[in-house]
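Appendix C: a fully annotated inverse folding record. The material below is reproduced so that readers can follow the format used throughout the book. The structure is listed first as tokens, followed by the designed sequence.
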């Protein structure tokens, strides 16, 4: 059974940093994503990581967000630096995402909430 569980969210001041974690179980992954959902907004693709640890990051967060993995622990991470109010959202790790006119994923974890507030 596929299981993806995120952690690490919380409240951070503008300009601060957070590192989110996602532990994966029930399948061998080759390609995973981070997505986010803010109230009143569409699901937004944040970035992706392949098993060789190569990544692609959305232009909106490029230079501030980094995705890494620890395959020995079956985990991926999202390092978020210089956070801004527009980064506040529910962040989920996901598999099987397509990025057309709207983002759709085969499976998403429950998510971890990020709040950016002074």
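Designed amino acids, in order:
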């Amino acid at each position: 059974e596929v299981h993806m569980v995120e952690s690490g969210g919380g409240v951070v001041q503008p300009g601060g940093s957070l590192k989110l974690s996602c532990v994966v179980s029930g399948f061998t992954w080759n390609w995973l994503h981070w997505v986010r959902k803010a109230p009143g907004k569409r699901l937004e693709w944040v970035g992706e990581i392949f098993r060789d640890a190569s990544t692609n990051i959305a232009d909106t967060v490029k230079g501030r967000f980094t995705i890494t993995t620890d395959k020995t622990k079956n985990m991926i991470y999202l390092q978020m630096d210089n956070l801004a109010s527009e980064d506040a959202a529910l962040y989920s790790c996901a598999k099987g995402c397509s990025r057309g006119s709207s983002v759709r994923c085969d499976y998403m974890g429950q998510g971890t909430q990020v709040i950016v507030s002074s």
